[in-house]
Design goal:
By secondary structure, this protein is α+β, with helices and mostly antiparallel strands. It has two domains: 102 residues, Arc Repressor Mutant, subunit A; 57 residues, no CATH class. It is built from seven helices and seven strands; from the N terminus they run ββββαααβββαααα. The strands form two sheets. The protein has a five-stranded antiparallel beta sheet with strand order 4-3-2-1-7, covered by helices on one side. The longest helix has 18 residues. The two termini are 26 Å apart.
């Protein structure tokens, strides 16, 4: 299955890690801002009202108009302002996001070394928390699935003997 990524213009967005990449440049966003970007990428060129954003991104929690405006502002400034031209305010209606290329979800692929590092980080976060929560556990499992799809021999790395060599 693997983790998803979205490509637009020169950018690659990885929702699972809340990161936006262009070449070697990486910007890590706070989770709510990352969720907002993912929502806009899944609904390009559609006007999104405050109410719909609250329902879909904040999961119906009571939030102020200012919280939504702040998240949009932070998103626009992400990656050195790379998204400022992608998200427009529609007066009295909400926001609309347009991206340089059609946003498309694709299987997440990366080098084995980077994938092992990401898996290590996900697993360490997951096991270090008393109750890691469904999102963290899912992130760690998705990472493991991606690693095994990339190269089944990575199972050796994740075995108890391999874990001692590779997990720091």
């Amino acid at each position: 299955m693997g983790m998803r990524q979205f490509r637009f213009g020169e950018w690659v967005f990885e929702p699972g890690s809340c990161s936006l990449h262009r070449g070697s440049d990486t910007a890590v966003m706070e989770p709510r801002v990352s969720d907002l970007l993912e929502f806009f990428l899944l609904h390009p060129d559609e006007v999104q009202s405050h109410e719909r954003l609250v329902e879909e991104v904040w999961l119906g929690q009571v939030v102020s108009d200012e919280a939504v405006r702040r998240a949009v502002s932070v998103l626009r400034r992400a990656a050195g302002g790379a998204l400022s031209g992608c998200i427009r305010t529609i007066y009295k209606r909400g926001y609309i996001a347009s991206f340089p290329e059609p946003a498309a979800a694709a299987p997440f692929r990366q080098s084995p070394e980077r994938l092992i590092s990401a898996c290590d980080a996900s697993l360490l976060r997951c096991v270090s928390m008393p109750y890691p929560g469904q999102g963290r556990a899912r992130e760690a499992l998705d990472c493991l699935r991606s690693a095994l799809e990339l190269d089944p021999r990575l199972l050796e790395v994740l075995s108890p003997a391999g874990a001692l060599r590779h997990v720091r």
